[in-house]
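Standup notes, structure subgroup. Blocker cleared on the pyridoxal-5'-phosphate input:
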Amino acid sequence: ASGTDGAGGADLVARDRRAVWHPYAAASHDGPLFAVASAAGVRLTLTDGRELIDGMSSWWAAIHGYRHPVLDEAVRTQLGSMSHVMFGGLTHEPAVRLAETLVAITPEPLRRVFLCDSGSVAVEVAIKMALQYWTGRGRPERTRLLTIRRGYHGDTSGAMSVCDPDAGMHHLFSQLLPRHLFAPAPRCAYDEPCEDADVAEFERLFARHAHEVAAVILEPVVQGTGAMSFYAPGWLARVRELCDHHGVLLIADEIAVGFGRSGELFGCDHAGISPDIMCVGKALTGGYLSMAATLCTDEVAAGVSDSPAGAFMHGPTFMANPLASAVANASVELLLSSPWRDRVAEISAGLAAGLAPAAELAGVADVRVLGAIGVIETRDPVDMAVIQPLLVELGVWVRPFGRLVYTMPPFITSPADVATLTDAMVEAVARTT
Ligand code: PLP
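Run returned:
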Protein backbone atom coordinates (compact mmCIF):
# COMPACT_ATOMS: atom_id res chain seq x y z
CA ALA A 1 0.00 0.00 0.00
CA SER A 2 2.69 2.46 -0.88
CA GLY A 3 1.19 4.16 -3.90
CA THR A 4 4.67 4.73 -5.30
CA ASP A 5 4.81 2.49 -8.35
CA GLY A 6 5.90 5.03 -10.95
CA ALA A 7 8.98 7.16 -11.62
CA GLY A 8 11.19 5.18 -9.30
CA GLY A 9 8.82 5.50 -6.35
CA ALA A 10 8.48 1.80 -5.61
CA ASP A 11 12.24 1.42 -5.79
CA LEU A 12 12.70 4.42 -3.51
CA VAL A 13 10.31 3.01 -0.95
CA ALA A 14 12.08 -0.38 -1.10
CA ARG A 15 15.48 1.31 -0.57
CA ASP A 16 13.98 3.40 2.21
CA ARG A 17 12.65 0.33 3.98
CA ARG A 18 16.13 -1.23 3.98
CA ALA A 19 18.11 1.76 5.28
CA VAL A 20 15.99 4.54 6.75
CA TRP A 21 14.41 5.06 10.14
CA HIS A 22 11.23 7.17 10.24
CA PRO A 23 9.84 9.23 13.14
CA TYR A 24 7.91 7.27 15.77
CA ALA A 25 8.30 4.06 13.78
CA ALA A 26 10.04 0.72 14.14
CA ALA A 27 13.23 0.45 12.10
CA SER A 28 11.67 -2.16 9.83
CA HIS A 29 8.15 -0.77 9.71
CA ASP A 30 5.95 -1.80 6.81
CA GLY A 31 3.29 0.89 7.25
CA PRO A 32 2.14 3.16 4.42
CA LEU A 33 4.95 5.22 2.93
CA PHE A 34 4.75 7.60 -0.02
CA ALA A 35 7.65 8.94 -2.06
CA VAL A 36 7.49 12.68 -2.78
CA ALA A 37 9.10 13.99 -5.95
CA SER A 38 8.47 17.69 -5.39
CA ALA A 39 6.37 20.24 -3.53
CA ALA A 40 5.11 23.62 -4.76
CA GLY A 41 2.41 25.94 -3.46
CA VAL A 42 0.08 23.78 -1.37
CA ARG A 43 0.68 20.61 -3.40
CA LEU A 44 2.96 17.64 -2.86
CA THR A 45 3.65 15.65 -6.03
CA LEU A 46 4.33 11.96 -5.51
CA THR A 47 6.76 10.06 -7.71
CA ASP A 48 3.81 8.39 -9.48
CA GLY A 49 2.54 11.83 -10.49
CA ARG A 50 -0.33 12.09 -8.03
CA GLU A 51 -0.83 15.51 -6.48
CA LEU A 52 -1.89 15.87 -2.86
CA ILE A 53 -3.20 19.02 -1.19
CA ASP A 54 -1.01 19.49 1.85
CA GLY A 55 -3.03 19.71 5.06
CA MET A 56 -0.07 19.51 7.43
CA SER A 57 2.25 22.41 6.47
CA SER A 58 4.99 19.85 7.18
CA TRP A 59 4.08 19.81 10.89
CA TRP A 60 3.06 23.48 11.34
CA ALA A 61 6.07 24.87 9.46
CA ALA A 62 5.30 25.63 5.79
CA ILE A 63 2.88 28.51 6.37
CA HIS A 64 3.62 30.06 2.97
CA GLY A 65 3.44 26.74 1.13
CA TYR A 66 6.37 25.20 -0.75
CA ARG A 67 8.87 26.78 -3.15
CA HIS A 68 7.67 30.29 -2.48
CA PRO A 69 9.65 32.51 -4.88
CA VAL A 70 10.52 35.04 -2.15
CA LEU A 71 11.83 32.35 0.19
CA ASP A 72 13.68 30.49 -2.59
CA GLU A 73 15.35 33.78 -3.52
CA ALA A 74 16.32 34.56 0.09
CA VAL A 75 18.21 31.26 0.34
CA ARG A 76 19.85 31.72 -3.07
CA THR A 77 20.98 35.26 -2.23
CA GLN A 78 22.37 34.21 1.13
CA LEU A 79 24.29 31.35 -0.51
CA GLY A 80 26.13 34.03 -2.48
CA SER A 81 27.78 35.42 0.67
CA MET A 82 28.00 32.59 3.23
CA SER A 83 26.15 29.41 4.08
CA HIS A 84 27.50 28.95 7.58
CA VAL A 85 30.00 30.34 10.05
CA MET A 86 30.33 29.51 13.72
CA PHE A 87 28.56 31.95 16.05
CA GLY A 88 31.12 31.91 18.88
CA GLY A 89 32.95 35.25 18.61
CA LEU A 90 31.43 36.01 15.18
CA THR A 91 28.18 37.65 14.14
CA HIS A 92 26.44 38.45 10.86
CA GLU A 93 23.67 40.62 9.49
CA PRO A 94 20.99 37.92 8.93
CA ALA A 95 21.17 36.82 12.58
CA VAL A 96 21.20 40.36 13.98
CA ARG A 97 18.26 41.36 11.82
CA LEU A 98 16.32 38.28 12.84
CA ALA A 99 16.93 38.90 16.54
CA GLU A 100 15.83 42.54 16.16
CA THR A 101 12.68 41.46 14.32
CA LEU A 102 11.78 38.82 16.90
CA VAL A 103 12.21 41.33 19.71
CA ALA A 104 10.00 43.79 17.82
CA ILE A 105 7.12 41.39 17.13
CA THR A 106 6.96 39.40 20.40
CA PRO A 107 5.53 40.78 23.67
CA GLU A 108 7.45 43.87 24.79
CA PRO A 109 9.50 42.60 27.77
CA LEU A 110 11.20 39.93 25.64
CA ARG A 111 14.44 41.59 24.59
CA ARG A 112 17.12 38.93 24.19
CA VAL A 113 17.23 36.18 21.57
CA PHE A 114 19.13 32.90 21.57
CA LEU A 115 19.04 31.34 18.10
CA CYS A 116 19.24 27.58 17.99
CA ASP A 117 18.59 24.75 15.62
CA SER A 118 15.31 23.02 16.46
CA GLY A 119 12.22 23.39 18.58
CA SER A 120 13.33 20.74 21.07
CA VAL A 121 16.64 22.55 21.55
CA ALA A 122 14.80 25.86 22.03
CA VAL A 123 12.91 24.18 24.88
CA GLU A 124 16.16 22.82 26.38
CA VAL A 125 17.58 26.33 26.19
CA ALA A 126 14.49 27.77 27.91
CA ILE A 127 14.75 25.22 30.74
CA LYS A 128 18.47 25.82 31.18
CA MET A 129 17.92 29.59 31.20
CA ALA A 130 15.31 29.20 33.94
CA LEU A 131 17.56 27.02 36.09
CA GLN A 132 20.61 29.24 35.62
CA TYR A 133 18.46 32.29 36.39
CA TRP A 134 17.55 30.90 39.80
CA THR A 135 21.16 30.03 40.65
CA GLY A 136 21.96 33.63 39.75
CA ARG A 137 19.21 34.86 42.05
CA GLY A 138 20.50 32.75 44.98
CA ARG A 139 17.68 30.17 44.79
CA PRO A 140 19.40 27.09 43.35
CA GLU A 141 16.79 24.81 44.95
CA ARG A 142 14.30 26.04 42.36
CA THR A 143 14.84 23.24 39.85
CA ARG A 144 11.41 21.79 39.16
CA LEU A 145 9.13 22.63 36.29
CA LEU A 146 5.37 22.82 36.55
CA THR A 147 3.35 21.98 33.49
CA ILE A 148 0.05 20.47 32.37
CA ARG A 149 -0.95 17.08 31.07
CA ARG A 150 -1.37 16.45 27.34
CA GLY A 151 1.48 18.83 26.53
CA TYR A 152 4.16 18.22 23.92
CA HIS A 153 7.46 20.09 23.93
CA GLY A 154 9.86 17.93 21.91
CA ASP A 155 11.93 14.77 22.08
CA THR A 156 15.20 15.72 23.78
CA SER A 157 15.58 14.89 27.47
CA GLY A 158 14.56 18.19 29.02
CA ALA A 159 11.71 18.62 26.55
CA MET A 160 10.52 15.03 27.08
CA SER A 161 10.51 15.58 30.83
CA VAL A 162 7.66 18.07 30.43
CA CYS A 163 5.67 16.12 27.83
CA ASP A 164 2.53 14.33 28.93
CA PRO A 165 3.67 11.60 31.33
CA ASP A 166 1.18 9.14 29.81
CA ALA A 167 2.51 9.60 26.27
CA GLY A 168 5.10 6.84 26.64
CA MET A 169 8.33 8.79 27.01
CA HIS A 170 8.32 8.86 30.79
CA HIS A 171 8.30 5.18 31.57
CA LEU A 172 10.65 4.39 28.67
CA PHE A 173 13.24 6.94 29.71
CA SER A 174 12.56 7.32 33.43
CA GLN A 175 16.27 6.91 34.23
CA LEU A 176 16.94 10.11 32.23
CA LEU A 177 14.05 12.31 33.21
CA PRO A 178 13.73 14.45 36.32
CA ARG A 179 10.41 14.36 38.18
CA HIS A 180 8.49 17.47 37.33
CA LEU A 181 4.99 18.53 38.37
CA PHE A 182 1.93 17.89 36.20
CA ALA A 183 -1.41 19.60 36.69
CA PRO A 184 -4.48 18.49 34.71
CA ALA A 185 -4.93 20.06 31.28
CA PRO A 186 -7.36 23.02 31.38
CA ARG A 187 -11.00 21.95 31.17
CA CYS A 188 -12.32 25.28 29.90
CA ALA A 189 -12.44 25.33 26.09
CA TYR A 190 -11.29 28.33 24.07
CA ASP A 191 -14.67 30.05 23.93
CA GLU A 192 -15.59 29.36 27.56
CA PRO A 193 -14.92 31.57 30.55
CA CYS A 194 -12.28 30.37 33.00
CA GLU A 195 -13.87 29.77 36.40
CA ASP A 196 -12.06 29.46 39.73
CA ALA A 197 -12.72 25.71 39.67
CA ASP A 198 -10.84 25.41 36.37
CA VAL A 199 -7.57 26.57 37.90
CA ALA A 200 -8.09 25.12 41.38
CA GLU A 201 -5.91 22.03 40.97
CA PHE A 202 -3.19 23.95 39.22
CA GLU A 203 -3.31 26.54 41.99
CA ARG A 204 -3.11 23.88 44.74
CA LEU A 205 -0.11 22.17 43.18
CA PHE A 206 1.55 25.52 42.61
CA ALA A 207 1.00 26.73 46.19
CA ARG A 208 2.42 23.47 47.62
CA HIS A 209 5.54 23.43 45.43
CA ALA A 210 6.21 27.06 44.46
CA HIS A 211 9.37 27.27 46.59
CA GLU A 212 11.04 24.57 44.43
CA VAL A 213 9.58 25.57 41.05
CA ALA A 214 11.87 27.32 38.55
CA ALA A 215 9.26 27.84 35.85
CA VAL A 216 5.86 26.96 34.53
CA ILE A 217 6.08 25.75 30.93
CA LEU A 218 3.02 25.66 28.67
CA GLU A 219 1.85 25.73 25.10
CA PRO A 220 -0.25 28.91 25.14
CA VAL A 221 -3.96 28.42 24.27
CA VAL A 222 -3.34 25.64 21.71
CA GLN A 223 -2.11 22.29 23.04
CA GLY A 224 -0.63 20.91 19.84
CA THR A 225 0.63 17.44 19.05
CA GLY A 226 -0.30 15.97 22.44
CA ALA A 227 -3.96 16.99 22.36
CA MET A 228 -4.88 19.27 19.46
CA SER A 229 -7.10 21.18 21.86
CA PHE A 230 -7.79 24.85 22.46
CA TYR A 231 -8.20 26.18 25.98
CA ALA A 232 -9.53 29.44 27.39
CA PRO A 233 -7.21 32.46 27.16
CA GLY A 234 -8.57 33.37 30.60
CA TRP A 235 -6.91 30.23 31.98
CA LEU A 236 -3.54 31.35 30.63
CA ALA A 237 -4.06 34.80 32.12
CA ARG A 238 -4.74 33.20 35.52
CA VAL A 239 -1.52 31.18 35.23
CA ARG A 240 0.42 34.37 34.50
CA GLU A 241 -1.08 35.94 37.64
CA LEU A 242 -0.14 32.87 39.69
CA CYS A 243 3.43 32.96 38.37
CA ASP A 244 3.67 36.62 39.36
CA HIS A 245 2.19 35.89 42.77
CA HIS A 246 4.68 33.08 43.49
CA GLY A 247 7.61 34.77 41.75
CA VAL A 248 7.98 31.91 39.25
CA LEU A 249 9.02 32.27 35.60
CA LEU A 250 6.58 31.51 32.78
CA ILE A 251 7.91 29.79 29.65
CA ALA A 252 5.58 29.96 26.62
CA ASP A 253 6.24 27.26 24.03
CA GLU A 254 4.99 28.94 20.84
CA ILE A 255 6.85 26.51 18.56
CA ALA A 256 3.71 25.04 17.00
CA VAL A 257 1.27 27.91 17.31
CA GLY A 258 3.47 30.96 16.73
CA PHE A 259 3.38 33.10 13.58
CA GLY A 260 -0.35 33.44 13.09
CA ARG A 261 -1.58 29.85 13.15
CA SER A 262 -4.18 30.43 15.88
CA GLY A 263 -5.53 33.67 14.41
CA GLU A 264 -3.26 35.83 16.58
CA LEU A 265 0.43 36.29 15.86
CA PHE A 266 1.29 34.34 19.03
CA GLY A 267 -0.77 32.17 21.37
CA CYS A 268 0.03 34.52 24.27
CA ASP A 269 -1.67 37.37 22.37
CA HIS A 270 -5.09 35.72 22.91
CA ALA A 271 -4.65 36.34 26.64
CA GLY A 272 -2.72 39.62 26.31
CA ILE A 273 0.08 38.24 28.49
CA SER A 274 3.84 38.18 28.16
CA PRO A 275 5.94 35.26 29.28
CA ASP A 276 9.42 35.57 30.80
CA ILE A 277 10.81 33.14 28.23
CA MET A 278 9.33 32.29 24.83
CA CYS A 279 10.25 29.53 22.36
CA VAL A 280 9.53 29.82 18.63
CA GLY A 281 10.43 27.49 15.76
CA LYS A 282 8.76 25.58 12.92
CA ALA A 283 7.08 28.42 10.92
CA LEU A 284 9.97 30.74 11.86
CA THR A 285 11.70 29.81 8.59
CA GLY A 286 8.47 29.12 6.70
CA GLY A 287 9.49 25.47 6.99
CA TYR A 288 12.58 25.92 4.79
CA LEU A 289 15.39 25.17 7.23
CA SER A 290 15.69 23.99 10.78
CA MET A 291 15.87 26.93 13.14
CA ALA A 292 14.26 27.95 16.41
CA ALA A 293 14.76 30.70 18.96
CA THR A 294 14.40 31.24 22.68
CA LEU A 295 13.64 34.78 23.79
CA CYS A 296 13.85 36.12 27.33
CA THR A 297 13.44 39.29 29.34
CA ASP A 298 16.32 41.50 30.50
CA GLU A 299 15.66 40.25 34.04
CA VAL A 300 16.12 36.58 33.02
CA ALA A 301 19.26 37.48 31.05
CA ALA A 302 20.64 39.40 34.07
CA GLY A 303 19.91 36.48 36.43
CA VAL A 304 21.73 34.09 34.12
CA SER A 305 24.71 36.46 34.00
CA ASP A 306 24.73 36.60 37.82
CA SER A 307 24.86 32.79 38.07
CA PRO A 308 28.19 31.25 39.12
CA ALA A 309 28.94 30.28 35.51
CA GLY A 310 28.37 33.88 34.40
CA ALA A 311 27.91 32.77 30.82
CA PHE A 312 24.85 30.96 29.54
CA MET A 313 26.02 27.39 29.08
CA HIS A 314 24.75 26.45 25.64
CA GLY A 315 26.22 26.78 22.13
CA PRO A 316 25.04 24.65 19.21
CA THR A 317 27.38 24.24 16.22
CA PHE A 318 24.73 25.45 13.80
CA MET A 319 23.52 28.31 16.01
CA ALA A 320 22.27 31.27 13.94
CA ASN A 321 22.97 29.50 10.65
CA PRO A 322 23.00 32.32 8.04
CA LEU A 323 20.90 30.46 5.46
CA ALA A 324 18.25 29.70 8.07
CA SER A 325 18.43 33.25 9.45
CA ALA A 326 18.04 34.73 5.95
CA VAL A 327 15.02 32.62 5.10
CA ALA A 328 13.53 33.30 8.55
CA ASN A 329 13.84 37.03 7.91
CA ALA A 330 12.17 36.60 4.53
CA SER A 331 9.42 34.40 5.96
CA VAL A 332 8.56 36.76 8.82
CA GLU A 333 8.56 39.77 6.48
CA LEU A 334 6.38 37.90 3.99
CA LEU A 335 3.93 36.99 6.75
CA LEU A 336 3.73 40.48 8.24
CA SER A 337 3.33 42.16 4.86
CA SER A 338 0.53 39.74 3.86
CA PRO A 339 -3.13 39.93 4.90
CA TRP A 340 -2.45 36.87 7.08
CA ARG A 341 -5.25 37.59 9.57
CA ASP A 342 -7.82 37.61 6.77
CA ARG A 343 -6.36 34.48 5.23
CA VAL A 344 -6.34 32.60 8.52
CA ALA A 345 -9.92 33.77 9.21
CA GLU A 346 -11.02 32.60 5.77
CA ILE A 347 -9.36 29.19 6.25
CA SER A 348 -10.89 28.99 9.71
CA ALA A 349 -14.39 29.56 8.32
CA GLY A 350 -13.76 26.98 5.58
CA LEU A 351 -12.52 24.41 8.09
CA ALA A 352 -15.49 25.00 10.40
CA ALA A 353 -18.02 24.63 7.58
CA GLY A 354 -16.24 21.71 5.94
CA LEU A 355 -15.63 19.66 9.09
CA ALA A 356 -19.07 20.28 10.64
CA PRO A 357 -20.68 17.19 9.01
CA ALA A 358 -18.17 14.99 10.91
CA ALA A 359 -19.92 15.92 14.15
CA GLU A 360 -22.89 13.82 13.00
CA LEU A 361 -20.80 10.64 12.66
CA ALA A 362 -21.19 7.98 15.34
CA GLY A 363 -17.41 7.41 15.51
CA VAL A 364 -16.66 11.07 16.19
CA ALA A 365 -16.33 12.51 19.70
CA ASP A 366 -15.65 16.14 18.82
CA VAL A 367 -14.96 18.57 15.98
CA ARG A 368 -13.14 21.81 16.73
CA VAL A 369 -11.48 24.66 14.86
CA LEU A 370 -9.30 27.56 15.95
CA GLY A 371 -7.53 29.79 13.45
CA ALA A 372 -6.11 27.66 10.65
CA ILE A 373 -6.32 24.45 12.71
CA GLY A 374 -9.13 21.93 12.25
CA VAL A 375 -9.56 18.77 14.30
CA ILE A 376 -11.82 15.72 14.16
CA GLU A 377 -11.45 13.73 17.37
CA THR A 378 -12.62 10.13 16.94
CA ARG A 379 -13.94 7.90 19.73
CA ASP A 380 -11.38 5.15 19.07
CA PRO A 381 -7.85 5.40 17.69
CA VAL A 382 -7.77 5.43 13.88
CA ASP A 383 -6.02 2.61 12.02
CA MET A 384 -3.19 4.40 10.22
CA ALA A 385 -2.64 1.50 7.81
CA VAL A 386 -6.18 2.04 6.53
CA ILE A 387 -6.87 5.75 6.87
CA GLN A 388 -3.55 7.09 5.57
CA PRO A 389 -3.76 5.43 2.10
CA LEU A 390 -7.43 6.37 1.94
CA LEU A 391 -6.65 10.05 2.53
CA VAL A 392 -3.99 9.87 -0.21
CA GLU A 393 -6.49 8.23 -2.52
CA LEU A 394 -8.81 11.17 -1.81
CA GLY A 395 -6.04 13.56 -2.86
CA VAL A 396 -4.88 15.06 0.43
CA TRP A 397 -1.91 14.81 2.75
CA VAL A 398 -3.21 14.62 6.31
CA ARG A 399 -1.38 12.58 8.95
CA PRO A 400 -3.74 11.39 11.70
CA PHE A 401 -2.43 10.40 15.10
CA GLY A 402 -4.21 8.33 17.74
CA ARG A 403 -7.78 9.63 17.92
CA LEU A 404 -6.92 12.86 16.10
CA VAL A 405 -7.51 13.53 12.42
CA TYR A 406 -6.37 17.11 12.03
CA THR A 407 -5.19 19.71 9.59
CA MET A 408 -3.19 22.92 9.72
CA PRO A 409 -2.85 23.91 6.05
CA PRO A 410 -0.55 26.60 4.62
CA PHE A 411 -2.01 30.12 4.86
CA ILE A 412 -2.11 30.36 1.06
CA THR A 413 -4.63 27.50 0.76
CA SER A 414 -7.61 28.54 -1.38
CA PRO A 415 -11.23 28.04 -0.23
CA ALA A 416 -11.66 25.32 -2.89
CA ASP A 417 -8.60 23.44 -1.62
CA VAL A 418 -9.76 23.81 2.01
CA ALA A 419 -13.07 22.26 0.93
CA THR A 420 -11.29 19.33 -0.77
CA LEU A 421 -9.23 18.84 2.36
CA THR A 422 -12.17 18.83 4.75
CA ASP A 423 -14.36 16.68 2.46
CA ALA A 424 -11.58 14.10 2.32
CA MET A 425 -11.12 14.15 6.09
CA VAL A 426 -14.83 13.71 6.76
CA GLU A 427 -15.12 10.93 4.17
CA ALA A 428 -12.03 9.11 5.46
CA VAL A 429 -13.33 9.27 9.04
CA ALA A 430 -16.82 8.17 7.94
CA ARG A 431 -15.39 5.15 6.10
CA THR A 432 -12.97 4.04 8.81
CA THR A 433 -14.67 4.65 12.16
N1 PLP B 1 7.21 22.34 21.14
C1 PLP B 1 6.05 22.16 20.49
C2 PLP B 1 4.82 22.85 21.00
C3 PLP B 1 5.99 21.36 19.35
O1 PLP B 1 4.81 21.18 18.71
C4 PLP B 1 7.19 20.76 18.87
C5 PLP B 1 7.17 19.90 17.68
O2 PLP B 1 6.15 19.38 17.27
C6 PLP B 1 8.38 20.97 19.58
C7 PLP B 1 8.36 21.78 20.70
C8 PLP B 1 9.67 20.34 19.12
O3 PLP B 1 10.13 20.94 17.96
P1 PLP B 1 11.16 20.18 16.99
O4 PLP B 1 10.41 19.02 16.39
O5 PLP B 1 11.56 21.22 15.98
O6 PLP B 1 12.30 19.73 17.82
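Discussed briefly. The pocket of pyridoxal-5'-phosphate is lined by residues 59, 118-120, 123, 152-154, 219, 224-225, 253, 255-256, 281 (CB under 6 Å).
Next: hand off to the docking folks.
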